[in-house]
Here is the input.
Amino acid sequence: MKTKMDINCDLGEGYGAFMKGNDEAIMPHITSANVACGFHAGDPVTIAKTLRLAKKFKVAIGAHPSNPDLMGFGRREMGLTTEEIRNYLIYQISAVHGFAKTLGIELQHVKLHGALYNKAARDDETAQAAVQAIKAYSPNLIVFAPPKSAMAEAARKAKMQVAYEAFADRAYNPDGTLVSRRKPNALITDIQAIAKRVIQMAREGTVETINGETIQLGEVHTICIHGDTPDAGKVAESLKKALLKAGIQVIPVSSFL
Amino acid sequence: MKTKMDINCDLGEGYGAFMKGNDEAIMPHITSANVACGFHAGDPVTIAKTLRLAKKFKVAIGAHPSNPDLMGFGRREMGLTTEEIRNYLIYQISAVHGFAKTLGIELQHVKLHGALYNKAARDDETAQAAVQAIKAYSPNLIVFAPPKSAMAEAARKAKMQVAYEAFADRAYNPDGTLVSRRKPNALITDIQAIAKRVIQMAREGTVETINGETIQLGEVHTICIHGDTPDAGKVAESLKKALLKAGIQVIPVSSFL
Amino acid sequence: MKTKMDINCDLGEGYGAFMKGNDEAIMPHITSANVACGFHAGDPVTIAKTLRLAKKFKVAIGAHPSNPDLMGFGRREMGLTTEEIRNYLIYQISAVHGFAKTLGIELQHVKLHGALYNKAARDDETAQAAVQAIKAYSPNLIVFAPPKSAMAEAARKAKMQVAYEAFADRAYNPDGTLVSRRKPNALITDIQAIAKRVIQMAREGTVETINGETIQLGEVHTICIHGDTPDAGKVAESLKKALLKAGIQVIPVSSFL
Amino acid sequence: MKTKMDINCDLGEGYGAFMKGNDEAIMPHITSANVACGFHAGDPVTIAKTLRLAKKFKVAIGAHPSNPDLMGFGRREMGLTTEEIRNYLIYQISAVHGFAKTLGIELQHVKLHGALYNKAARDDETAQAAVQAIKAYSPNLIVFAPPKSAMAEAARKAKMQVAYEAFADRAYNPDGTLVSRRKPNALITDIQAIAKRVIQMAREGTVETINGETIQLGEVHTICIHGDTPDAGKVAESLKKALLKAGIQVIPVSSFL
Here is the structure.
């Protein structure tokens, strides 16, 4: 039974004058921030602001690199070569790490964004290229990945630390994948239900699927919450409270992995 | 009298399928490469290739950050705030440094590109913001700047090392500024003449202006050659030979500053 | 005394997944929409949506071209050549017009955006280049410009129709320019006050400056309201009602210029 | 037996200071120019220059729209929705057409670029979305497509004119598709061989595959030559001469389709 859990959220997803998300409302209640690196969002001014906010609330930070697709917010698959994937990741991780350096904080992890996250979860070649880039940059970075994924597998093979991630507010299919957002009931919006699910994930390593079955997720180290819903701050706050009440410490994954 | 000189050149100025310059022909003959960081040129794959080439020829590398203006190749002035300048520089320097890290090589210097270089040469606020960013990232980086410039002044005040730069193939005005490229005779193309000028810069710290006067440049540590002319490789090669023949060592500026 | 007035607003200022403004709340209450063309905002999907919404509410549309500066939302001055200005405008105007064509609606006007609007208001060369491009594309387009501006002057000289624009919610300096947004009281937020000012602009062609003086604006054909404040829809609605109550028809400028 | 043939080439594929291709050498010898529209290449200044050059040599022009992927030169597949495809095409076609309008020339055709061309050749949904956009913009545009392709099929169904395209300098597989550029002998560089192949395509509608078989291509209206090889101008010139000598008129496809 797990007694420690990390809560992560994608933050810094604005771009210049384009704002997105509720970073100020969410940051106080999470333990790991995935910071957009400029390819799907996150111009340099936004990165700097996001890291200052993370530092203020002692939230661990990670790079959140993407396909080069600002117009599609990194949500569209692209036929990148492995050479492109490797170099795009090094570029983005380095950029975010540079800001961390100027603030005297560490870079804890890397979590791929959007279409790249999804492709690396199922495609070995993509996963291996991504892990190779992360390790080349720094073998000490923690790789965030779904428990049973090509990305997790590639990271383990490369002797990298992996934090297994589950989703607080997304419905699961019986095979452990996420229900597509386009389907009904894909998103769980009830704050109580979210907390209950996460506590079960932490304690049992299981989740109830959209069909009502209970399936094994395996060990879960970090829970992803979404930052772009209007009440994302409240969800974060209540989730953290519920976990604490259930006797689960909410701390950055680097402190217990 | 100077007996050591650095030769620098802007390299890695392609972008994806867009090629530019003659990096392979030039790299063997220079000692410092200014590497485009993605804002005016230099996508991640190009950065990686450029650094591998620099490593092969033991050329020291620097970041060559720009205004965010790919369409204008960073040659157009932009009304950036000092906050924007600072963060755009940290982003770009970090990105190039990250690739250097993966190759086990150091980042030697920062040289601003194009319109940003020109603005920082004459505008105190821009220069101070730029120096602040470079220092925040790493106080050990060498700042490339014209001898008498706001940028050099700001770097000295910030206790940063400054490498004074002169231009091998550009005509000078009597006030020590460069003759605009739009004017006749702004570019010196005769290889012999270029070598002669550079030797005089090294030995005397002077240059003959477009009017025929001789003016003081002050101490010069690094000579900039251009990489985008068809015979840039030959210019580099013959310049290096001429300097060596004149008893001037051609080595990276970090080894003698 | 004017009995007809156009209300214009910048719309379609999202970009892909980045949303901005309250287009759905504002569109029913205005008569001319300035549509972002892709250079500061307005990807193709957003342009199409914006035009469909304009068509639904019978709002006349205009192109709202910008400097190529997505990261700075077109608010930063750029040192563009007149050749660049001309071609950037033709590109953007054409693109928006193409969507209009597919929907069977007309392109009524062109209003420059942000830093380009400001520069063309005071700089003859910029204004002439902009007007030249608009006229080259179509001599029937209406040019939106401040009453006393280089842009208005250039348009008149080129025999183009000009709609003189005033700002509903911005304070004016005694010289007729707008008070910088960075100064206190630059924005007028009281809905009643806004309506009162606009009625005075329409009836008298005057405005009370930030110092309390009354100055001549000259004839005003179109009133700009801002779309990016939370209650922009309400402002638009109440302004239209107030104008109607005051006996002023609210219709697209092309119907009375 | 065909006695008329169009020669097309992708031109205007520079971007700002990034040059690409040999437009000036090629333009005099072709009859249709496919003009990059800004998404993979072709900033507005380049579009304007390309159209002026086409006008000078009485070359018919077409829009050459792409995925939004400047970094990958439009050569990478992207998971675009049909709504995105439609609107990206309308945007790009409109932009190029706008420049044509200012020069008093017509837009003859649309040819998709790179990865989008390839996807539309084999995927019905993509092809239908593309054709829908082209027709919505103008039902008079000619669609360039491979003879046996989803794109040609979709255009025919939509009652659009289709120009069947073959490639002068690419090897063919036995199934009529092109040999991948990564394979040996994919490119035919011998100028005589190119001319001979094209004459056979024109006269017989057949081509010899990489295996030595002769296959039916069907009717061919336009021959694509590549503009990015160093001797592209010479290839164009000698191809045109060879066709003329063989009694085949070389004229824009709109004049005989």
Q: What stands out?
A: Strands of chain D lie at 4-11, 32-36, 60-64, 107-110, 142-145, 162-167, 206-208, 214-216, 222-225, 249-250. The interface with chain B takes residues 14-20, 41, 43, 70-73, 75 of chain D (CB under 8 Å). Residues 172 and 209 of chain D are 5 Å apart (CA to CA). The mean pLDDT of chain D is 95.
